[in-house]
Amino acid sequence: MPAWLTGLYKELNNQYSDFEFVLVNNNCDLQRIDEAIAPLPEELRKNIFLLNLSAPVNRDNALLAGLDRANGDYAVIFEFDFSNEPGLVTQLWEKSQTGFDIVYLRAPERHLPLTHRLLYRTFYGILQRYSNLRIDPQAHHSRIISRRALNSLLRLRENSHYLKAIYALVGYKTTAIDVKQALLPEPGTSLGAQFRTSLVAITSFTTFLRSILLWIFILSCLVAGVAIFNAIKVRFTNLDIFGAYQQTVSGWAYLVVMISVFFAITCLNLYIMSIYLSNIYSEIKNRPLYIIESVKRY
């Protein structure tokens, strides 16, 4: 951290007149943080603001705590992975001055085990297919955010915060800067934790589960239709749909028809209920119906 702060301070002090560092202590030893910051020059230390969280939270919520405290015209999230490239902050700023409110760093690839890569590929595929959000699967957390975009982002107070989806949800002009640093696994995060996070994001930002229930209903109707046709065919011809001989049993055809009909009706009811629950869920979130980027008068 001292090297990260020192490099950033030199870069920012040469380029900007007013800035501060907002550090979020998410379950780290406070004494070790103090020991790391104490030897730094006073002119650097006076720009540091440390937020100590009372209990550990996930990475996105920790980032949100820092963004809540940021009060400048621009806020920059800068990961330790880029501690040896402080000049990227200036590149982010310069890119934002060409008409973009959010500029992020894009990785060339992900360095993950096969199971994690499959999970991420499925997750982002669902997000892109079943939502209107444009989320870059290769995006780093590091980015610069303008004041107006940050204000809109902070209005979306959701308990299931998935920041990359929130960035896409608020809109505003967004672009990326390609870097060589690959995306690495988050330390201390298991595959199970990532799966649960993915499931929360999918249910919060997509219509995937509702679409699955629709396909289950359609498939149940097809299965019920085939079962009913087969039962009636066996009843009158003693041959099933595959041409095999079947011995008719009294009441069997009636039982198959009734089970198939009620199975299809049950799936239809589940689909209808999912629509109501999805609408209620959307209302509870109270997301803004629109976000005005700017107003221009002539």
User: What's the name of the CATH homologous superfamily of the largest domain?
Assistant: Spore Coat Polysaccharide Biosynthesis Protein SpsA, Chain A
Strand content: 5-15%
Question: Mind summarizing the main beta sheet?
Answer: 4 strands, mixed
Assign the structural class, choosing from mainly alpha, mainly beta, alpha/beta, alpha+beta, or little secondary structure.
Answer: alpha/beta
CATH topology-level name of the largest domain: Spore Coat Polysaccharide Biosynthesis Protein SpsA, Chain A
- Helix and strand element order: HEHHEHEHEHEHHEHHH
Which class of the largest domain in CATH terms?
Alpha Beta
Distance between the termini: 50 Å
Integer count of domains: 2
Strand neighbour order, sheet with most strands: 3-5-4-6
Average per-residue pLDDT, rounded, comes to 81
**Parts with pLDDT < 50 across at least 5 consecutive residues:** none
Radius of gyration using CA atoms only:
27 Å
Tell me the CATH architecture of the largest domain: Alpha-Beta Complex
Tally of alpha and pi helices: 11
Helix content, binned percent: 40-55%
How would you classify the quaternary structure?
single chain
List the helices and strands and how they pair.
Elements lengths: L1 H14 L5 E5 L4 H8 L4 H4 L2 E5 L6 H11 L4 E4 L9 H10 L5 E5 L7 H17 L8 E8 H9 L7 H8 L3 E5 L12 H15 L2 H30 L14 H34 L13
Can you tell me about this structure?
By secondary structure, this protein is α/β, with parallel strands linked by helices. The chain has two domains: 2-189, Spore Coat Polysaccharide Biosynthesis Protein SpsA, Chain A; 208-285. Helix content is 54%, strand content 11%. It contains eleven helices and six strands. It has helices at residues 2-15, 30-37, 42-45, 59-69, 87-96, 114-130, 147-155, 163-170, 191-205, 208-237, 252-285, and strands at residues 21-25, 48-52, 74-77, 102-106, 139-146, 174-178. The strands form two sheets. It has a four-stranded mixed beta sheet. The chain has a two-stranded parallel sheet with strand order 1-2. α6 packs parallel to α9 (191-205) and α10 runs antiparallel to α11 (252-285).
